[in-house]
TrEMBL record:
Transmembrane segments: none annotated. Residues 15-159 form the NADPH-dependent FMN reductase-like domain. Pfam families: FMN_red. This is Flavodoxin. GO terms for molecular function: oxidoreductase activity.
Length: 212
């Protein structure tokens, strides 16, 4: 029996968070903390979640799906392709996304050449959410870069599909140092997660049309 659109929508969703801290595990990371809060919120919508700290892996520079010579990206890519939702989380350094996040974006460029039997990139139908954290300005600028890049390689961005926290300019307090999550950040996290899960279910049951 061929699955119906409703059957597809009812299947459990999976989310993968790629956190792009410059700190290897097990160092505490504000970026990973906020990413995990997004995953917790997604879990409340029936999404199965996992998290990877990208700097722990030898992701080689390049724009191919496998750069060879011990490249760790193919195994991370496999996890990404098994997921419906990508949570891409980055700290803010010098007002920019991290170099690790840039490496991820560059490796995702290869997806433009990886298509299904209808000519669609394998990322079509997948949803992406952005997470930005730092004690300096830059969240809106970084969000714009992440949105454009992720959309270019085939991901769909939900309404208000970002959550972020910026501390006091030139301050020393990290997100993980706060006594409690700010109400505004908690609200954007809940909205991003709810909209991502909703959109992913819609796309699961009604994919984009074939590319001529």
């Amino acid at each position: 029996m061929t699955p119906t659109s409703q059957d597809a929508e009812d299947q459990p969703l999976r989310a993968l968070a790629l956190t792009c801290s410059l700190k290897p595990s097990p160092a505490p990371s504000s970026t990973e903390l906020l990413a995990r809060q997004v995953l917790d919120a997604l879990g409340g919508h029936g999404v199965t979640c996992s998290v990877v700290r990208a700097v722990d892996y030898d992701i080689r520079p390049g724009v191919e799906k496998d750069m060879g010579d011990g490249d760790a990206w193919p195994q991370l890519r496999a996890q990404l392709l098994e997921s419906d939702i990508l949570v891409l989380a980055t700290p803010t350094w010098l007002g920019q996304h991290s170099s690790v996040a840039q490496r991820i974006l560059e490796r995702l460029d290869a997806e433009l050449s990886e298509t299904d039997d209808q000519g669609r990139p394998l990322t079509f139908g997948k949803v992406a959410v952005a997470v930005v954290v730092g004690n300096e300005d830059g969240a809106h600028h970084i969000t714009g870069i992440l949105y454009q890049s992720l959309s270019d390689v085939g991901f769909t961005i939900p309404a208000q599909g970002v959550t972020y926290w910026n501390g006091v300019a030139m301050g020393k307090t990290d997100y993980q140092d706060l006594d409690r999550t700010p109400k505004s950040t908690a609200g954007t996290t809940a909205t991003a997660a709810a909209n991502a899960a909703h959109l992913a279910r819609l796309l699961r049951g009604n994919s984009y049309p074939a590319i001529a």
